[in-house]
Design a protein that fits this description.
This protein has 462 residues and is α/β, with parallel strands linked by helices. Helix content is 38%, strand content 18%. Strands 3-2-1-4-7 form a five-stranded mixed beta sheet. A five-stranded mixed beta sheet has the order 10-9-8-13-14, with helices on both faces. Strand 5 and strand 6 form a beta hairpin. The relative contact order is 0.16. The protein binds alpha-D-glucopyranose. One of its GO terms (molecular function) is D-glucose binding. It comes from Parascedosporium putredinis.
Protein backbone atom coordinates (compact mmCIF):
# COMPACT_ATOMS: atom_id res chain seq x y z
CA UNK A 1 0.00 0.00 0.00
CA UNK A 2 1.24 3.46 -0.80
CA UNK A 3 0.24 5.95 1.80
CA UNK A 4 0.26 9.05 -0.30
CA UNK A 5 0.79 9.20 -3.98
CA UNK A 6 0.21 12.43 -5.77
CA UNK A 7 1.09 11.51 -9.30
CA UNK A 8 0.38 13.75 -12.17
CA UNK A 9 0.89 14.06 -15.86
CA UNK A 10 3.81 16.20 -16.94
CA UNK A 11 1.47 19.13 -17.48
CA UNK A 12 0.30 18.97 -13.87
CA UNK A 13 0.76 22.10 -11.88
CA UNK A 14 3.32 21.43 -9.27
CA UNK A 15 4.34 24.93 -8.38
CA UNK A 16 4.08 27.68 -5.87
CA UNK A 17 1.72 27.38 -2.91
CA UNK A 18 1.32 29.39 0.24
CA UNK A 19 1.15 27.79 3.64
CA UNK A 20 0.51 29.39 6.99
CA UNK A 21 0.89 27.72 10.34
CA UNK A 22 -0.94 28.72 13.48
CA UNK A 23 -0.59 26.51 16.48
CA UNK A 24 2.41 27.28 18.60
CA UNK A 25 4.32 30.25 19.83
CA UNK A 26 4.95 31.56 16.31
CA UNK A 27 2.89 32.24 13.23
CA UNK A 28 4.69 31.09 10.12
CA UNK A 29 3.96 32.17 6.58
CA UNK A 30 5.72 30.26 3.84
CA UNK A 31 5.70 29.82 0.13
CA UNK A 32 6.52 26.36 -1.03
CA UNK A 33 7.64 25.50 -4.50
CA UNK A 34 6.70 21.85 -5.01
CA UNK A 35 8.92 20.38 -7.65
CA UNK A 36 7.08 17.08 -7.89
CA UNK A 37 10.17 14.92 -7.47
CA UNK A 38 10.27 14.62 -3.64
CA UNK A 39 11.99 18.01 -3.42
CA UNK A 40 10.71 21.46 -2.58
CA UNK A 41 11.99 24.99 -2.01
CA UNK A 42 10.61 26.85 0.93
CA UNK A 43 10.78 30.51 1.92
CA UNK A 44 9.32 31.50 5.23
CA UNK A 45 8.84 34.23 7.72
CA UNK A 46 7.90 33.72 11.32
CA UNK A 47 6.62 36.10 13.96
CA UNK A 48 5.89 35.49 17.60
CA UNK A 49 2.17 35.66 18.26
CA UNK A 50 1.58 38.53 20.66
CA UNK A 51 0.40 37.06 23.99
CA UNK A 52 -2.66 39.32 24.08
CA UNK A 53 -3.84 37.97 20.74
CA UNK A 54 -3.80 34.40 22.08
CA UNK A 55 -6.57 35.46 24.43
CA UNK A 56 -8.05 38.22 22.25
CA UNK A 57 -11.61 39.36 22.85
CA UNK A 58 -12.67 38.43 19.33
CA UNK A 59 -11.43 36.02 16.69
CA UNK A 60 -11.43 38.92 14.25
CA UNK A 61 -8.45 40.50 16.06
CA UNK A 62 -6.33 37.36 15.77
CA UNK A 63 -7.29 36.58 12.16
CA UNK A 64 -6.73 40.19 11.04
CA UNK A 65 -3.21 39.94 12.44
CA UNK A 66 -2.67 36.72 10.47
CA UNK A 67 -3.89 38.32 7.23
CA UNK A 68 -1.56 41.29 7.80
CA UNK A 69 1.37 38.88 8.05
CA UNK A 70 0.34 37.18 4.80
CA UNK A 71 0.25 40.54 3.01
CA UNK A 72 3.65 41.53 4.38
CA UNK A 73 5.13 38.20 3.31
CA UNK A 74 3.76 38.44 -0.22
CA UNK A 75 5.04 41.97 -0.60
CA UNK A 76 8.48 41.04 0.72
CA UNK A 77 9.00 37.78 -1.13
CA UNK A 78 6.67 37.65 -4.12
CA UNK A 79 6.04 41.30 -4.97
CA UNK A 80 5.86 40.82 -8.72
CA UNK A 81 3.64 37.74 -8.59
CA UNK A 82 1.53 39.49 -5.95
CA UNK A 83 0.92 42.60 -8.04
CA UNK A 84 0.24 40.54 -11.16
CA UNK A 85 -2.22 38.26 -9.36
CA UNK A 86 -3.93 41.22 -7.76
CA UNK A 87 -4.43 42.77 -11.21
CA UNK A 88 -5.82 39.48 -12.55
CA UNK A 89 -8.32 39.36 -9.71
CA UNK A 90 -10.01 42.48 -10.96
CA UNK A 91 -10.10 41.16 -14.54
CA UNK A 92 -12.59 38.73 -16.12
CA UNK A 93 -13.39 35.79 -13.83
CA UNK A 94 -12.00 33.24 -16.31
CA UNK A 95 -8.52 34.71 -15.84
CA UNK A 96 -8.61 34.66 -12.06
CA UNK A 97 -6.10 32.46 -10.41
CA UNK A 98 -5.32 33.43 -6.84
CA UNK A 99 -2.52 32.09 -4.68
CA UNK A 100 -3.69 28.80 -3.15
CA UNK A 101 -3.07 28.66 0.57
CA UNK A 102 -2.90 25.65 2.87
CA UNK A 103 -3.87 26.59 6.42
CA UNK A 104 -2.15 24.55 9.10
CA UNK A 105 -4.35 25.14 12.10
CA UNK A 106 -3.15 22.97 14.93
CA UNK A 107 -6.09 22.78 17.27
CA UNK A 108 -8.93 20.28 17.57
CA UNK A 109 -11.32 20.82 14.68
CA UNK A 110 -14.36 19.04 13.35
CA UNK A 111 -13.29 18.93 9.73
CA UNK A 112 -16.16 18.66 7.28
CA UNK A 113 -14.44 19.45 3.99
CA UNK A 114 -11.00 20.03 2.54
CA UNK A 115 -11.17 23.73 3.45
CA UNK A 116 -13.84 23.70 6.12
CA UNK A 117 -13.62 22.86 9.79
CA UNK A 118 -15.17 24.06 12.99
CA UNK A 119 -13.02 24.73 16.01
CA UNK A 120 -13.89 22.35 18.87
CA UNK A 121 -11.71 23.90 21.57
CA UNK A 122 -8.53 25.90 21.92
CA UNK A 123 -5.35 24.36 23.38
CA UNK A 124 -1.79 25.50 24.18
CA UNK A 125 -2.73 28.76 25.94
CA UNK A 126 -5.12 30.15 23.30
CA UNK A 127 -8.54 31.20 24.53
CA UNK A 128 -10.84 33.22 22.25
CA UNK A 129 -14.37 32.04 23.02
CA UNK A 130 -16.16 33.51 20.02
CA UNK A 131 -14.12 31.33 17.64
CA UNK A 132 -15.46 28.09 19.09
CA UNK A 133 -17.81 26.38 16.64
CA UNK A 134 -16.72 28.67 13.79
CA UNK A 135 -15.23 27.58 10.48
CA UNK A 136 -11.61 28.69 10.87
CA UNK A 137 -10.97 28.77 7.10
CA UNK A 138 -13.92 31.12 6.75
CA UNK A 139 -12.49 33.36 9.47
CA UNK A 140 -9.12 33.51 7.72
CA UNK A 141 -10.68 34.04 4.27
CA UNK A 142 -12.78 36.92 5.59
CA UNK A 143 -9.69 38.60 7.06
CA UNK A 144 -7.82 38.09 3.77
CA UNK A 145 -10.73 39.51 1.80
CA UNK A 146 -10.90 42.55 4.07
CA UNK A 147 -7.37 43.36 2.85
CA UNK A 148 -8.24 42.54 -0.77
CA UNK A 149 -5.47 39.96 -1.08
CA UNK A 150 -5.51 37.58 -4.06
CA UNK A 151 -5.36 34.51 -1.84
CA UNK A 152 -7.73 31.57 -1.52
CA UNK A 153 -7.74 29.43 1.60
CA UNK A 154 -7.79 26.11 -0.21
CA UNK A 155 -7.05 23.55 2.48
CA UNK A 156 -7.25 23.05 6.21
CA UNK A 157 -4.60 20.87 7.78
CA UNK A 158 -3.56 19.83 11.25
CA UNK A 159 0.23 19.98 11.77
CA UNK A 160 0.37 16.22 12.38
CA UNK A 161 -1.40 15.53 9.09
CA UNK A 162 0.96 17.93 7.34
CA UNK A 163 3.90 16.12 8.90
CA UNK A 164 2.58 12.76 7.69
CA UNK A 165 2.12 14.16 4.17
CA UNK A 166 5.50 15.84 4.07
CA UNK A 167 7.25 12.70 5.26
CA UNK A 168 5.47 10.70 2.55
CA UNK A 169 6.35 13.25 -0.13
CA UNK A 170 10.04 13.49 0.79
CA UNK A 171 10.54 9.75 1.20
CA UNK A 172 13.00 8.58 -1.39
CA UNK A 173 12.99 4.91 -0.46
CA UNK A 174 9.40 4.14 -1.24
CA UNK A 175 8.66 3.26 2.39
CA UNK A 176 5.67 5.26 3.59
CA UNK A 177 5.25 6.63 7.09
CA UNK A 178 2.55 5.16 9.30
CA UNK A 179 2.41 8.15 11.65
CA UNK A 180 3.01 11.89 11.63
CA UNK A 181 3.58 13.23 15.13
CA UNK A 182 4.40 16.53 16.78
CA UNK A 183 6.41 16.87 19.96
CA UNK A 184 6.68 20.62 20.26
CA UNK A 185 4.67 23.30 22.05
CA UNK A 186 1.90 20.68 22.03
CA UNK A 187 1.81 17.01 21.12
CA UNK A 188 -0.40 15.00 18.79
CA UNK A 189 -0.33 12.31 16.11
CA UNK A 190 -2.10 11.48 12.83
CA UNK A 191 -2.24 8.09 11.14
CA UNK A 192 -4.05 6.23 8.42
CA UNK A 193 -7.01 4.04 9.41
CA UNK A 194 -9.33 1.71 7.54
CA UNK A 195 -12.80 3.21 7.15
CA UNK A 196 -14.24 -0.13 8.29
CA UNK A 197 -12.60 0.36 11.68
CA UNK A 198 -13.96 3.87 12.26
CA UNK A 199 -17.02 3.77 14.49
CA UNK A 200 -17.52 7.50 14.96
CA UNK A 201 -20.22 8.92 12.66
CA UNK A 202 -18.56 10.99 9.94
CA UNK A 203 -20.16 14.16 8.65
CA UNK A 204 -19.09 16.10 5.63
CA UNK A 205 -17.80 15.06 2.27
CA UNK A 206 -14.94 12.65 1.82
CA UNK A 207 -13.65 10.16 -0.69
CA UNK A 208 -14.69 6.64 0.27
CA UNK A 209 -13.06 4.90 -2.67
CA UNK A 210 -9.73 4.28 -0.98
CA UNK A 211 -11.30 2.63 2.07
CA UNK A 212 -9.03 4.66 4.32
CA UNK A 213 -8.90 7.97 6.12
CA UNK A 214 -6.30 10.00 7.93
CA UNK A 215 -7.18 10.23 11.61
CA UNK A 216 -6.04 13.16 13.70
CA UNK A 217 -6.01 11.46 17.09
CA UNK A 218 -5.68 14.59 19.30
CA UNK A 219 -3.83 12.34 21.73
CA UNK A 220 -2.97 15.41 23.80
CA UNK A 221 -6.34 14.87 25.46
CA UNK A 222 -5.74 11.17 26.17
CA UNK A 223 -6.84 10.09 29.66
CA UNK A 224 -8.18 13.39 30.95
CA UNK A 225 -9.78 11.31 33.72
CA UNK A 226 -6.29 10.31 34.87
CA UNK A 227 -6.99 6.59 34.99
CA UNK A 228 -3.48 5.66 33.98
CA UNK A 229 -1.36 8.78 33.54
CA UNK A 230 1.30 9.36 36.18
CA UNK A 231 0.39 12.34 38.32
CA UNK A 232 2.28 14.45 40.81
CA UNK A 233 1.08 17.41 42.83
CA UNK A 234 2.96 19.65 40.38
CA UNK A 235 0.94 18.26 37.45
CA UNK A 236 -2.22 19.06 39.37
CA UNK A 237 -1.01 22.57 40.23
CA UNK A 238 -0.02 23.20 36.61
CA UNK A 239 -3.41 22.12 35.32
CA UNK A 240 -5.12 24.52 37.73
CA UNK A 241 -3.15 27.44 36.31
CA UNK A 242 -4.03 26.82 32.65
CA UNK A 243 -6.81 28.39 30.59
CA UNK A 244 -7.97 24.91 29.58
CA UNK A 245 -8.18 23.26 32.99
CA UNK A 246 -9.17 19.58 33.03
CA UNK A 247 -8.26 18.76 29.43
CA UNK A 248 -5.11 18.02 27.40
CA UNK A 249 -3.73 16.13 30.40
CA UNK A 250 -1.42 13.97 28.30
CA UNK A 251 -0.10 17.05 26.49
CA UNK A 252 0.51 18.78 29.81
CA UNK A 253 2.90 15.99 30.80
CA UNK A 254 4.64 15.72 27.44
CA UNK A 255 4.97 18.93 25.51
CA UNK A 256 7.34 21.87 25.52
CA UNK A 257 4.86 24.48 26.63
CA UNK A 258 4.38 22.75 29.98
CA UNK A 259 7.59 20.96 30.94
CA UNK A 260 9.36 24.10 32.15
CA UNK A 261 6.47 24.95 34.43
CA UNK A 262 6.49 21.46 35.98
CA UNK A 263 10.23 21.83 36.62
CA UNK A 264 9.66 25.28 38.12
CA UNK A 265 6.91 24.11 40.47
CA UNK A 266 8.94 21.13 41.68
CA UNK A 267 12.09 23.23 42.12
CA UNK A 268 10.20 25.92 43.98
CA UNK A 269 8.82 23.36 46.44
CA UNK A 270 12.35 22.13 47.10
CA UNK A 271 13.49 25.68 47.72
CA UNK A 272 10.70 26.29 50.18
CA UNK A 273 11.62 23.18 52.15
CA UNK A 274 13.87 24.25 55.07
CA UNK A 275 15.57 20.88 55.17
CA UNK A 276 16.78 21.23 51.56
CA UNK A 277 19.60 23.62 50.89
CA UNK A 278 18.84 24.32 47.24
CA UNK A 279 20.10 27.70 45.97
CA UNK A 280 21.10 28.89 49.41
CA UNK A 281 24.78 28.01 49.68
CA UNK A 282 26.74 30.46 51.73
CA UNK A 283 29.96 28.71 50.99
CA UNK A 284 29.70 25.49 49.11
CA UNK A 285 32.86 23.41 48.89
CA UNK A 286 32.54 23.53 45.10
CA UNK A 287 31.56 27.15 44.98
CA UNK A 288 33.77 30.13 44.64
CA UNK A 289 34.85 30.91 48.24
CA UNK A 290 33.40 34.42 48.22
CA UNK A 291 30.14 33.82 46.46
CA UNK A 292 26.87 33.31 48.18
CA UNK A 293 24.12 31.85 46.05
CA UNK A 294 21.35 34.28 45.59
CA UNK A 295 18.01 34.11 43.82
CA UNK A 296 16.91 37.51 42.56
CA UNK A 297 13.34 38.48 43.49
CA UNK A 298 12.91 39.02 39.72
CA UNK A 299 13.86 35.41 38.96
CA UNK A 300 11.59 33.56 36.54
CA UNK A 301 11.72 30.72 39.05
CA UNK A 302 9.46 32.79 41.29
CA UNK A 303 6.97 33.74 38.58
CA UNK A 304 4.25 31.49 37.19
CA UNK A 305 5.33 30.24 33.76
CA UNK A 306 8.64 32.07 34.26
CA UNK A 307 10.89 29.12 33.44
CA UNK A 308 11.31 28.49 29.73
CA UNK A 309 11.57 24.80 28.87
CA UNK A 310 14.68 25.50 26.79
CA UNK A 311 16.84 25.51 29.93
CA UNK A 312 16.03 21.80 30.23
CA UNK A 313 17.95 21.25 27.00
CA UNK A 314 20.94 23.05 28.47
CA UNK A 315 20.68 20.87 31.58
CA UNK A 316 20.48 17.68 29.53
CA UNK A 317 23.35 18.65 27.24
CA UNK A 318 25.79 19.73 29.95
CA UNK A 319 27.75 16.68 31.04
CA UNK A 320 30.85 18.49 32.17
CA UNK A 321 32.05 17.74 35.73
CA UNK A 322 31.53 21.36 36.81
CA UNK A 323 28.20 21.82 34.98
CA UNK A 324 29.52 25.22 34.08
CA UNK A 325 27.19 25.84 31.08
CA UNK A 326 24.13 25.04 33.13
CA UNK A 327 25.34 27.20 36.02
CA UNK A 328 25.83 30.11 33.63
CA UNK A 329 22.39 29.53 32.17
CA UNK A 330 20.80 29.48 35.63
CA UNK A 331 22.39 32.86 36.12
CA UNK A 332 21.57 34.43 32.74
CA UNK A 333 18.12 32.95 32.16
CA UNK A 334 16.82 32.72 35.71
CA UNK A 335 18.77 35.34 37.70
CA UNK A 336 20.07 32.73 40.11
CA UNK A 337 23.50 34.11 40.98
CA UNK A 338 26.51 31.94 41.78
CA UNK A 339 24.70 28.60 41.90
CA UNK A 340 26.86 25.84 43.32
CA UNK A 341 27.64 22.58 41.58
CA UNK A 342 25.19 20.79 43.88
CA UNK A 343 22.47 23.29 42.97
CA UNK A 344 23.06 22.66 39.28
CA UNK A 345 23.13 18.89 39.85
CA UNK A 346 19.79 19.01 41.66
CA UNK A 347 18.23 21.20 38.99
CA UNK A 348 19.54 18.88 36.31
CA UNK A 349 18.12 15.83 38.09
CA UNK A 350 14.65 17.41 38.33
CA UNK A 351 14.72 18.63 34.71
CA UNK A 352 15.91 15.26 33.44
CA UNK A 353 13.21 13.40 35.35
CA UNK A 354 10.52 15.61 33.82
CA UNK A 355 12.07 15.30 30.33
CA UNK A 356 12.49 11.53 30.60
CA UNK A 357 8.90 11.06 31.73
CA UNK A 358 7.78 13.11 28.71
CA UNK A 359 9.84 10.95 26.35
CA UNK A 360 8.54 7.71 27.87
CA UNK A 361 4.93 8.88 27.55
CA UNK A 362 5.66 9.90 23.95
CA UNK A 363 6.88 6.35 23.33
CA UNK A 364 3.57 5.00 24.63
CA UNK A 365 1.61 7.09 22.10
CA UNK A 366 3.92 6.04 19.26
CA UNK A 367 3.74 2.39 20.29
CA UNK A 368 -0.06 2.48 20.34
CA UNK A 369 -0.16 3.53 16.68
CA UNK A 370 2.57 1.08 15.67
CA UNK A 371 0.65 -1.78 17.28
CA UNK A 372 -2.65 -0.61 15.77
CA UNK A 373 -1.05 -0.57 12.30
CA UNK A 374 -0.13 -4.24 12.60
CA UNK A 375 3.09 -3.45 10.70
CA UNK A 376 5.33 -5.33 13.08
CA UNK A 377 3.37 -8.55 12.49
CA UNK A 378 4.22 -8.73 8.79
CA UNK A 379 6.69 -11.42 7.68
CA UNK A 380 8.92 -9.09 5.67
CA UNK A 381 10.59 -7.20 8.54
CA UNK A 382 10.21 -3.90 6.73
CA UNK A 383 11.03 -0.58 8.36
CA UNK A 384 8.17 1.10 10.19
CA UNK A 385 8.62 4.76 9.37
CA UNK A 386 7.42 7.65 11.54
CA UNK A 387 7.68 11.35 10.68
CA UNK A 388 8.07 13.74 13.59
CA UNK A 389 8.52 17.45 14.07
CA UNK A 390 8.58 19.95 16.92
CA UNK A 391 11.01 21.65 19.24
CA UNK A 392 11.30 18.75 21.67
CA UNK A 393 12.36 16.14 19.13
CA UNK A 394 14.51 18.67 17.37
CA UNK A 395 16.24 20.40 20.25
CA UNK A 396 15.92 18.39 23.46
CA UNK A 397 19.07 16.27 23.64
CA UNK A 398 18.52 12.51 23.83
CA UNK A 399 14.72 12.83 23.49
CA UNK A 400 14.60 10.31 20.66
CA UNK A 401 17.08 8.02 22.47
CA UNK A 402 14.83 8.00 25.50
CA UNK A 403 11.83 7.21 23.29
CA UNK A 404 13.68 4.21 21.83
CA UNK A 405 14.74 3.04 25.27
CA UNK A 406 11.07 3.06 26.33
CA UNK A 407 9.83 1.42 23.10
CA UNK A 408 12.09 -1.55 23.80
CA UNK A 409 10.32 -2.06 27.12
CA UNK A 410 6.78 -2.02 25.69
CA UNK A 411 4.94 -5.34 25.25
CA UNK A 412 4.41 -6.12 21.59
CA UNK A 413 7.34 -3.96 20.51
CA UNK A 414 10.44 -5.09 22.43
CA UNK A 415 14.06 -4.60 21.30
CA UNK A 416 13.42 -6.26 17.94
CA UNK A 417 10.38 -4.14 17.16
CA UNK A 418 12.12 -0.96 18.32
CA UNK A 419 14.96 -1.75 15.94
CA UNK A 420 12.53 -1.70 13.00
CA UNK A 421 10.93 1.60 13.96
CA UNK A 422 12.52 4.59 12.27
CA UNK A 423 11.66 7.95 13.79
CA UNK A 424 12.78 10.68 11.40
CA UNK A 425 12.38 14.42 11.43
CA UNK A 426 9.98 15.77 8.81
CA UNK A 427 11.55 19.21 8.69
CA UNK A 428 9.10 21.98 7.79
CA UNK A 429 6.50 19.25 7.72
CA UNK A 430 3.50 21.38 8.38
CA UNK A 431 4.40 23.94 5.68
CA UNK A 432 5.10 21.34 3.02
CA UNK A 433 2.15 19.21 4.05
CA UNK A 434 -0.21 22.18 3.87
CA UNK A 435 1.12 23.10 0.43
CA UNK A 436 0.62 19.50 -0.75
CA UNK A 437 -2.96 19.49 0.44
CA UNK A 438 -3.58 22.90 -1.14
CA UNK A 439 -2.35 21.37 -4.39
CA UNK A 440 -4.76 18.47 -4.06
CA UNK A 441 -7.56 20.91 -3.24
CA UNK A 442 -6.80 22.90 -6.39
CA UNK A 443 -7.28 19.71 -8.38
CA UNK A 444 -10.63 19.10 -6.77
CA UNK A 445 -12.04 22.47 -7.77
CA UNK A 446 -14.37 22.74 -10.72
CA UNK A 447 -12.51 22.06 -13.93
CA UNK A 448 -13.99 25.05 -15.71
CA UNK A 449 -12.23 27.38 -13.29
CA UNK A 450 -8.76 26.06 -13.93
CA UNK A 451 -7.91 24.69 -17.28
CA UNK A 452 -4.75 22.90 -16.19
CA UNK A 453 -6.65 20.51 -14.00
CA UNK A 454 -8.16 18.71 -16.92
CA UNK A 455 -4.75 17.25 -17.60
CA UNK A 456 -3.81 16.45 -14.06
CA UNK A 457 -4.71 13.44 -12.05
CA UNK A 458 -4.29 13.15 -8.37
CA UNK A 459 -4.74 10.10 -6.33
CA UNK A 460 -4.68 9.89 -2.62
CA UNK A 461 -3.95 6.93 -0.47
CA UNK A 462 -3.68 4.26 -3.09
C1 LIG B 1 -2.38 20.46 20.36
C2 LIG B 1 -3.50 20.60 19.33
C3 LIG B 1 -3.28 19.66 18.16
C4 LIG B 1 -1.88 19.84 17.60
C5 LIG B 1 -0.83 19.68 18.70
C6 LIG B 1 0.58 19.89 18.21
O1 LIG B 1 -2.46 19.21 20.94
O2 LIG B 1 -4.75 20.36 19.94
O3 LIG B 1 -4.25 19.86 17.16
O4 LIG B 1 -1.64 18.92 16.59
O5 LIG B 1 -1.09 20.60 19.74
O6 LIG B 1 0.77 21.17 17.70
Amino acid sequence: MTLLTIHMSSSARWGLYLAVDLGGTNFRVCSVQLNGDTTFNLTFNKVAIPKELMVAKTARELFSFLADQIEEFLRAHHEEHFVETKKQMTGPSSARDPFRLGFTFSFPVNQVGINKGKLIRWTKGFDIPDAIGEDVCGLLQEAIDRLGLPVKVAALVNDTVGTLMARAYTSTEGSQPILGAIFGTGTNGAYLEKLSKIRKPLDGTYDKSTGEMVINTEWGSFDNQLNVLPTTRWDAALDESTVNRGVQKFEKRVSGMFLGEIVRLATLDMMKDESVSLFRDANSSFNDWKSTTNVSPQSGLLKPWGLDSSIMSVAAADNTPELSTLRQELESALDIFAPSLEDAQSFKAVANAVGRRAARLSAVAIAAIVLQSGKLDGPDKEVVDIGVDGSLVEHYPFFRDMIYEALKAIDGIGPEGAERIRIGIAKDGSGVGAALIALVAAKMESETDFEYKAKAETSWFE
